[in-house]
Design a protein that fits this description.
six-stranded antiparallel sheet, about 625 residues, alpha/beta, single chain, 24 helices
Length: about 625
């Protein structure tokens, strides 16, 4: 994986602005610690930071290729999972390759097929290709949004980069946040609207979109979308189809010239990926798979079973590690680390995030990176197969807003008097309704089935993207590439049309996935009730965030005080979060995590020198 940046302008001589592109890629050193490069011309500046995964010698960027007198330059962040097939197709068309990197295959695919290359590639990607001859830039982002790509279109310039901080290094772009940005933070955060960068003049290319920019103008288009199709297969065929797609997705993502491992929590999703990877390792003579899990110091002493977290992971991890005979490492974090790393989480995400849910992943990835460069993880299974409570709870299904963020009115209460008139409920409701208008539905299906499609679509376009953003930023901030096989667009396409009676086979969440994994996983793992991402249960965590929030409230220079109702927030702090009873976001961000979110908000305002307008 890598980091990319660029500046295109046909009106000024960009050769006089080389220091700007150097400054921009300097923000991406963690995404690409192994090498860097820039391309300089009158109309285009392109920059790249590289994390070497495939073909360390031949995959340097920016990569230039000339075919038939036409010159093309690519900067690329991602991984293609069908490189071999594409190279063979292109070689049959007469193309010659100078490396075995997927970068050259991607660039050659564009040279041959133009925009249509997006129909041929399977992978995770964010890339820019500059056509020297017609002075045209092509930017594209992968189907599900695994890899990020931000941009700013100002005057005659198109500026782009892998992260928000990259664009903020450009002299045209300032860290300004207006009312719309505040409604993103307080109404939707830590989620974001598709295409929104929160800062004024910063946008993000939505998943499955591309941009064309040249002297004729700017165009952004969608190249892929879920389709509603009639599901014709019976239960057994559906089971086999899911199993086949998943195994293929995992095995494609095992390609690497550097050490590769998997994350293993003992849950269904990570266990499935680890088992499939382990089987492939043994088959291919690659030895035993290395697996990693996360836990918190003294968590066993304070864990309490709940509806959302019925049991701890530790015993299940042991079951799976023994079952696949992996070389397993358990990484244990302290609660003090979770607090001190809240700043790291903000700097990685460029925004307030998911509090300790972010920072624990940041610290975990930091430890994994000591020995590995690539990891596979189980994100996205819950969104596409129906793992969350809101897929089966009638109140959540019938909610008239996002089921993971039903209490926007409670969010308003913490705002300062100057901001209480912000129409955050209306803003959130509008985003919700706009998404539902785009849900692909099948003609003639029942209102119940149509609503269920809507729930799955909301999860794929919102909740899943939030978790993918988290995964990318926390891992890449530590120079660790994390791949997510359940985000293979072919699997997502297929799962979208599986009827709910199959998806919830056996009256279980992710029932069809459980059935598909019989024979791959032990029955005890298959039958285990879903448990979310592991969190700390130690009371010291609450005390630590309480102490930090008290310090922020006492410090009159704290920038966050301008945005908050002091008395309401003080009550939340004094009661250790108990006066704020509803989760801020999802299932895990309750009172203590709300305090941590506000701590991150204060860090963000200060570190990014945010100007509120």
């Amino acid at each position: 994986m890598c980091g990319i940046a660029g500046w295109i302008d046909n009106e000024i001589d960009l050769r006089e602005n080389v220091e700007t592109i150097k400054d921009m890629i300097s923000t991406l050193k963690n995404r690409g610690p192994d090498d860097s490069g820039i391309y300089v011309s009158k109309d285009a500046l392109l920059g790249h930071r590289r994390l070497s995964i495939i073909d360390p010698e031949g995959g340097n960027q920016p990569m230039i290729k000339t075919v038939g007198g036409r010159e093309f330059i690519i900067v690329y962040n991602g991984e293609l999972y069908n490189t071999k097939e594409l190279r063979e197709k292109l070689e049959n068309k007469g193309y010659i390759f100078n490396s075995y990197s997927d970068t050259e295959v991607l660039l050659t695919s564009y040279i041959e097929w133009g925009i249509e290359c997006l129909k041929y590639i399977n992978g995770i990607f964010a890339f820019g290709i500059w056509n020297v001859n017609n002075k045209r830039l092509f930017l594209a982002r992968d189907h599900l949004g695994v890899k990020p790509l931000f941009y700013s279109h100002i005057n005659d310039s198109l500026i782009f980069g892998s992260e928000i901080k990259t664009l903020l290094k450009h002299p045209y772009i300032e860290p300004i946040v207006d009312d719309v940005g505040l409604m993103e933070i307080f109404g939707l955060g830590p989620a974001r609207s598709l295409g929104t960068g929160v800062f004024r003049n910063i946008k993000e290319i939505p998943p499955a979109h591309y941009i064309l920019y040249d002297e004729k103008g700017f165009k952004i288009e969608q190249y892929w979308e879920l389709e509603a199709k009639s599901h014709e297969e019976n239960l057994e065929d559906t089971t086999n189809h899911v199993r086949s797609l998943l195994i293929d997705a995992v095995e494609r993502q095992l390609v690497s010239d550097v050490p590769l491992c998997t994350f293993l929590s003992g849950g269904l999703d990570s266990s499935a990926i680890s088992a499939i990877a382990s089987n492939a390792f043994k088959r291919d003579g690659r030895g035993n798979l290395n697996t990693f899990s996360i836990d918190y110091k003294d968590n066993d002493k304070f864990f309490k079973s709940s509806k959302f977290q019925p049991d701890a992971d530790s015993n299940w991890i042991k079951v799976m590690a023994e079952y696949i005979n992996s070389n397993h490492t358990n990484i244990e974090l302290t609660n003090e680390e979770l607090i001190t790393s809240l700043k790291d989480g903000v700097l990685a995400r460029d925004l307030p995030g998911m509090a300790d849910v972010d920072t624990s992943l940041f610290l975990f990835c930091k430890e994994v990176r000591n020995t590995h460069t690539v990891a596979l993880s189980g994100e996205c299974a819950d969104e596409i197969f129906g793992g969350y409570p809101w897929f089966r709870n009638k109140e959540d299904i019938n909610a008239d807003t996002f089921p993971w963020s039903k209490n926007v009115g409670n969010r308003r209460k913490i705002l300062s008097k100057d901001l209480k008139d912000l129409p955050i409920e209306e803003y959130v409701k509008e985003k919700y309704k706009d998404t539902l208008k785009r849900v692909p539905k099948l003609y003639g299906e029942s209102s119940v089935d149509g609503r269920m499609r809507g729930i799955f679509y909301l999860n794929i376009k919102w909740f899943m993207i939030t978790l993918l953003n988290r995964k990318d930023r926390m891992s890449m901030a530590n120079s660790l590439e994390v791949r997510v096989p359940f985000a293979d667009y072919r699997l997502v396409e297929y799962a979208y049309n599986i009827p709910k009676e199959f998806k919830f086979y056996g009256n279980r969440e992710k029932g069809i996935l459980r059935k598909a994994l019989r024979g791959i996983l032990p029955d005890s793992i298959i039958n285990r009730k879903k448990s979310p991402y592991p969190k700390t249960h130690h009371p010291i965590y609450t005390e630590l965030v309480q102490q930090e929030m008290k310090r922020i409230l006492k410090d009159k220079s704290s920038p966050v005080l301008e945005l908050l109702d002091y008395d309401i927030v003080k009550e939340i702090v004094d009661t250790k979060g108990k006066s704020y009873t509803k989760p801020w976001f999802g299932q895990l961000m309750t009172g203590p995590q709300l305090m941590a979110y506000l701590i991150q908000l204060n860090i963000w305002l200060r570190e990014y020198k945010v100007r509120l307008v």
